[in-house]
Write a structure and sequence with these properties.
By secondary structure, the protein is α/β, with parallel strands linked by helices. It has helices at about 1-25, 45-55, 65-70, 75-80, 90-95, 105-125, 135, 150-165, 170-190, 205-225; strands at about 30-35, 60, 125-130, 140-150, 200-205.
């Protein structure tokens, strides 16, 4: 436990330093929509439809190649762990292997991810799905943050229709994926993933549907200019 607490403080100090450097970046005039989401809530589809309606780019899986190039890591690694912790707990990630500078492979990917997202935000208005974008752009962009969630029942129905049957039950897949996303977000941001106070807009995709979410986001975006 002492090792874990020491690591947690060291990691917090390191990323606080990185954040101070990032804060020196001029605030971009571009307006960004950052969509965080529970697995199976439809956030990815919502992001793409919002972008199409507003006539701006959407970055989701498109980020993988950029982060891989920036970090020098394999595309497959970035795809698997780009927003899901290798372990499903903060402690498990805390004791992961590190180099002599105290950084893990995941840390290197996180720093590359931050740079890629900040560069995209500086280049043009866009929608970015996932990857802690709400946190990364909290100081360097005019960023509208959204969290999409839904009931387990609705999400299970959706992942079966989109991804098909797997050996693992749909509900177990949901819980496993969410647990790793939550651990990753907590590790690198120190904030609570999905907590309403961290977002400008929280939407239940199961209750209001994809179109309802798209309408709500685009209307808020237009009227908050």
């Amino acid at each position: 436990m002492a090792l874990y607490q020491h690591f947690k403080r060291s990691l917090a100090d390191e990323f606080a330093r990185e954040d101070r450097l990032a804060a020196q970046t001029p605030v971009t005039a571009n307006r960004i929509i950052a969509i965080s989401r529970q697995f199976g809530s439809g956030g990815r589809t919502i992001g793409k439809e919002v972008a199409a309606r507003l006539g701006i780019p959407c970055y989701d899986s498109e980020l993988i190649d950029r982060i891989a190039a920036e970090s020098g890591l394999a595309k497959e690694y970035v795809e698997k762990y780009g927003e899901s912790a290798a372990a499903d707990s903060l402690y498990g990630n805390a004791v992961a292997g590190r180099d002599r500078d105290g950084q893990s492979v995941a840390d290197k990917m996180w720093l590359a991810q931050k740079k890629v997202i900040a560069d995209l935000a500086a280049a043009e208005p866009c929608v970015i799905v996932g990857r802690c974008t709400d946190y990364i752009l909290r100081d360097v962009a005019d960023c509208m943050t959204v969290f999409v969630h839904a009931s387990d029942e609705k999400r299970a129905e959706r992942i079966l229709s989109v991804y098909g049957e797997r050996e693992e039950s749909p509900v177990q897949r949901l819980h496993d994926k969410d647990k790793k996303r939550r651990a990753y977000y907590e590790l690198y941001t120190g904030s609570d993933w999905g907590a309403a106070q961290n977002y400008a807009l929280c939407l239940d995709g199961g209750k209001i549907g994809i179109d309802g979410c798209v309408n709500a986001i685009t209307e808020l975006y237009k009227h908050s200019a």
